[in-house]
Amino acid sequence: MEDVAQLGWRQSESLIGTQVDDCANDLASGAALAPRLDREISKSSHHRGANAAPLASANHRLSRLRSAAGVFFGVATQAVFLLTVWYLFAFLKGPIPARSGSLWWDVLLTAQFALPHSWLLLPSTRKRLSRWIAAPFYGLVFCLATCASLFVTFSFWTTSEFTLWDVAPQGRWLIDVGYYGSWVALFYSLHLSGLGYQTGLTPWWHWVRGEPQPRRGFELRGAYRVMRHPIYASFLGLIWFTPTMTLDHAILTVLWTAYILVGSHFKDERLAHFLGDSYRQYQARIPGFGLRIISSRFLMPLYHVTRSVSEGGCSK
Q1: Domains along the chain?
Q2: pTM of the model
């Protein structure tokens, strides 16, 4: 029995010794590989760092290029806007250079201005296009699209020799006063509502300066105390105050007048969508084009005076 026990004990010692030797060999191998692993890790880190530097530099250059393109786009849009105003002044003032063609072409030209102009103003359209057009640039896109459609109108407008009215030379100064006065009223109204928002300048300028986008509000002041749409009213003056109303100009005037009247309704709905009940209260109190003010201040007193005179005459 003792021999068997000694034999088992020697086998156990041999097995333990073999395992200890294997562990020692593994540790030795690991120690030998450690410097090599350190070198590989260091080399890999250096390689990643070498790749990260050009990538960061490329991203920086791309960011600067985008910023430069954004600045150029804003400046170019404002320049196009000023040029469009100059051509619009001459186009509406007349006379327009003679160009023969079908008057139906003028109808299409008038429509191609109205439809995209209204479509871009819809909140749903802006929401869809916001996936491609950032908020600081949407006003610029709208302004540029409006200017482009007007230049198409200027370039392809056809004229007619048929004249509906031609004001005598001695009365043309009254038409000129109305026309120039409408331009003054237009820019005055644009100033009240925020000319920078109409041209996209204000949101873009905040982007240039790295400031948060401003929230556009509605301030009741100036002409907005007596009418809701002084801008539209001023534009009506631009198209109606003409000394010579040719047939082609009449088409433009009638269609743009209809567009302004319909557009004023959609503008009310759009502002009510953004401003809520406060605008609905303002809408119920202030007329769109001041007609209620004219009626209450001038026509109603005239009506009462006329009625009193007629009743006084009947009693006599």
Answers
A1: 71-285 (1.20.120)
A2: 0.73
